[in-house]
């Protein structure tokens, strides 16, 4: 675990892929919260649920990148209100299957829990169960492999709402699922050689702290994702 920002109220870590944020029915150890309580015991009980001590937002297990943690209750309440008011600005790097035609776009499509797959979120859903979800995206780079003619697009993604699996669900709805995403890839599931997890990385986060100061935190692209881009640029 790498600390990328810290003050008396907030810690920002670069969460590694493969690690869940807090305990659930299938993960009772080795979580981000376990690590936090071992290294910052004052965080215990901060928030609304001791299981989620200090946690104000989450990242999927296989998503890497910036994760904010509140070190005290005042900071937790402040960040919670910011998230609710859409005052926290997050950016993600996502490599998706196929050639995205538009250089930029907005996906404005409510999502709901799938009735067929408990873990999955889908666009639409039964009336009254869908929740507003808005995602902005911008093309950063396009790749076409000469050997297989497979194509990929690197996107800068900005979720304007914070729904579970929002980016993965929205990009799949667009017809360009995140690479190596077994849950949302469907018939377009594709994984560049050597990559063992979905290419989704929380690259930066920006917000105003309790003192009114703008805080901007970035997490560099992990080696596995950076290595994948290098291979694609070399046509591998």
Short description:
The strands form two sheets. Strands 1, 2, 3, 4, 5, 8, 9, 10 and 11 form a nine-stranded mixed sheet that branches. Strands 6-7 form a two-stranded antiparallel sheet. With 236 residues, the protein is α+β, with helices and mostly antiparallel strands.
Gyration radius, rounded: 18 Å
Mean pLDDT: 92
Helix content: 10-25%
Classification by helices and strands: alpha+beta
End-to-end C-alpha gap: 31 Å
Q: Any overview of this molecule?
A:
- The protein has 236 residues and is of the alpha+beta class.
- 17% of the residues lie in helices and 31% in strands.
- The chain has helices at residues 32-39, 73-84, 166-173, 223-233, and strands at 2-6, 10-15, 64-70, 89-97, 104-108, 111-113, 121-123, 134-144, 151-159, 200-208, 214-218.
- Strands 1, 2, 3, 4, 5, 8, 9, 10 and 11 form a nine-stranded mixed β-sheet that branches.
- A hairpin with a 5-residue loop joins strand 10 (200-208) and strand 11 (214-218).
- The longest helix is centred in the N-terminal third of the chain and has 12 residues, at 73-84.
- It is globular.
- The protein starts with a strand and ends with a helix.
- The model has no long low-confidence stretch (mean pLDDT 92).
């Amino acid at each position: 675990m790498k600390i990328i920002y810290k003050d008396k109220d907030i810690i920002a870590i670069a969460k590694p892929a493969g690690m869940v944020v807090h305990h659930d029915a299938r993960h009772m150890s080795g979580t981000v919260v376990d690590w936090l309580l071992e290294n910052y015991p004052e965080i215990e009980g901060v928030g609304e649920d001791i299981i989620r001590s200090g946690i104000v937002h989450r990242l999927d297990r296989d998503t890497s990148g910036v994760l904010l943690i509140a070190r005290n209750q005042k900071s937790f309440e402040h960040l919670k209100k910011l998230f609710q008011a859409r005052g926290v600005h997050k950016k993600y790097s996502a490599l998706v299957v196929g050639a995205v035609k538009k250089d930029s776009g907005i996906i404005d499509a409510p999502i709901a829990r799938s009735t067929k797959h408990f873990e999955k979120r889908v666009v639409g859903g039964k009336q009254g169960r869908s929740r507003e979800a808005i995602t902005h995206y911008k093309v950063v780079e396009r790749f076409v492999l000469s050997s297989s003619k497979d194509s990929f697009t690197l996107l800068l993604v900005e979720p304007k709402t914070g729904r579970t699996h929002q980016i993965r669900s929205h990009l799949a709805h667009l017809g360009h699922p995140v690479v190596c995403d077994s849950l949302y890839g469907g018939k377009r599931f594709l994984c560049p050689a050597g990559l063992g997890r979905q290419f989704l990385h929380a690259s930066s986060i920006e917000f105003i702290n309790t003192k009114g100061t703008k805080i901007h935190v970035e997490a560099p692209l992990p080696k596995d994702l950076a290595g994948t881009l290098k291979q694609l640029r070399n046509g591998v």
